[in-house]
Structure of Mitochondrial S-adenosylmethionine carrier protein:
Amino acid sequence: MDAPGFTASLVAGGVAGASVDLILFPLDTIKTRLQSPQGFSKAGGFRGIYAGVPSTAVGSFPNAAMFFLTYEYVKCLLHTDSASHFRPVKHMLAASAGEVVACLIRVPSEVVKQRAQVSASSKTLQIFSTILHEEGIQGLYRGYKSTVLREALWSWRRGHMVDSWQSAVCGAFAGGFAAAVTTPLDVAKTRIMLAKAGSSTAAGNVLSAMHGVWRSQGLSGLFAGVFPRMVAISMGGFIFLGAYDQTRSLLLEVSRKSPCSR
C-alpha cells in the first residue's frame, strides 16, 4: 500500500470506528445498564442515554487508528504468499495483536464510560479524576484482560470487514452470533469495571466474576444485554463499511487533486 493509500485507510478506519461508537451509543448504554449489578432501572433505565459519550468521543478515533496501524504492521511482518493456506491465520494473528494494542486506549475509555452510564448524574471528567485519585492508573485498566479476551475471540472478522458489501452482510450475521457467544465475557468485563475498589470482583479475575454472576442470577445474568449487543455489533459492520468507504474515497480524491501529489 502506498503512503497516500495507507494514510487514507488509517484516517478512514479511525473515522469509521468513531462513527460506529457514537451512532450506536444508546444501545451500548442500555446493554451496560442491563449488565450492571444494581439492575437496569436503578442504573438509570432509559434516562440519560448519552451519559459517558464524551469518553467515547475522545477515545474512539485513536482506538480504531491504533488497531489499524498494528493490524497492518503485523500483517507485513507475517508476509505470506497471496495463495497461501496460512493467509486466514495471518489475518487472525494480526487482528488479535491489533486488539491487544488498541485495548491500551479502549479500556480506560471504557471504564470511565461505563461508570458514567450507570451514574448519569456524574460528569465524565469527575469520574476520571475520582478513579485516578482512589485507584491510580491501574484503576483505568480494570477489566483489561477480559476485554482483550472478548475482542480477540472474534477479532478475525475485522480484518475482512472492508472487502465488500457482500462480506458486510456475512460479517453482520457472524458478528451477531459472535456477540451472543461472547456475552458472558462482556458481562464479566462490565462487572469488573463497575465493581467497588477493593472488592473481590475489582481484582479482575474473569472466571470469578462470571461465577459470581452465575450464583446470583443464573444463566440469564450471564447473558444480560445479549440482544442490544447483537444488534449493535451486527449494525456496526454496515456503519463501519459505509463510513470507511466514503471517507477513504474522499481522502484519496483530495490527495489526487492536491498539487503536492503531482
